[in-house]
């Protein structure tokens, strides 16, 4: 798949869009005059252990030695959803849950000590790739809603897979076509070089 990697490319628009996703977090200390970060907060300050949602890039850019916020894992990566993925991962519409399900999950693994998110991403992707391959070979399904069915990376794979499958089908069909020589090739075969180096017409 000739698609350049966008992570961790600082100038990638796709990576910027991923880090704009809002995730739940908790304050680790009292934050004065920071109440504007939470639209539902009436106080101008944020107290310790206050929960709110912030863009992912805020968590990535804060000082690890003195963090103001602690990242919390969203519900779509919780144990409850893990059971749903294990039951039938292909049935879940990841695009409707989160546009950047796998990419956001990879970022969140740094905030997990038990690797539960990483294992969930691996098993879910492994199971869904089987169904993705079958869908690429049956592109005539007009009822498929790609935007809600697949997340960002899956849509890239689906588009590339359907394109490759179509090229392969075209190649198979061309093998059955009777290939005729061009007029240039026919004329070249009609001409031969004489011993003295001059060309002459081939005897008919």
Automatic annotation (TrEMBL):
GO CC aspect terms: GINS complex
Transport as UniProt keyword: no
Domain DNA replication complex GINS protein PSF3 N-terminal: start-end pairs: 11-58
Subcellular location as annotated: Nucleus
Main location: nucleus
InterPro entries noted in UniProt: GINS_A, GINS_bundle-like_dom_sf, GINS_Psf3, GINS_Psf3_sf, PSF3_N
Residue stretches making up the GINS subunit domain: 77-172
Superkingdom of the organism of origin: Eukaryota
Function according to Swiss-Prot or TrEMBL: The GINS complex plays an essential role in the initiation of DNA replication. Required for correct functioning of the GINS complex, a complex that plays an essential role in the initiation of DNA replication, and progression of DNA replication forks. GINS complex is a core component of CDC45-MCM-GINS (CMG) helicase, the molecular machine that unwinds template DNA during replication, and around which the replisome is built.
Subunit structure: Component of the GINS complex.
Protein name, entry field: DNA replication complex GINS protein PSF3
Originating species: Anopheles arabiensis
């Amino acid at each position: 798949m000739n698609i350049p990697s966008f992570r961790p490319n600082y100038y990638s628009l796709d990576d910027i869009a991923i880090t704009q996703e809002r995730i739940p977090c908790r304050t680790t200390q009292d934050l004065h005059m920071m109440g504007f970060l939470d639209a539902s907060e009436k106080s101008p300050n944020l107290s310790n252990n206050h929960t709110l949602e912030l863009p992912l890039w805020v968590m990535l850019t804060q000082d690890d030695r003195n963090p103001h916020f602690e990242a919390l894992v969203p519900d779509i990566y919780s144990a409850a959803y893990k059971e749903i993925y294990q039951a039938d991962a292909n049935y879940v519409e990841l695009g409707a849950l989160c546009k950047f399900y796998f990419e956001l999950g990879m970022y969140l693994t740094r905030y997990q000590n038990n690797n539960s998110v990483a294992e969930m991403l691996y098993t879910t992707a492994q199971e869904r790739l089987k169904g993705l391959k079958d869908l690429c070979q049956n592109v005539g399904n007009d009822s498929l809603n790609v935007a809600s069915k697949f997340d960002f990376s899956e849509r890239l794979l689906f588009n590339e897979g359907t394109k490759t499958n179509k090229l392969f089908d075209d190649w198979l069909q061309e093998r059955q076509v009777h290939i005729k020589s061009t007029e240039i090739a026919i004329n070249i075969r009609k001409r031969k070089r004489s011993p003295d180096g001059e060309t002459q017409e081939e005897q008919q």
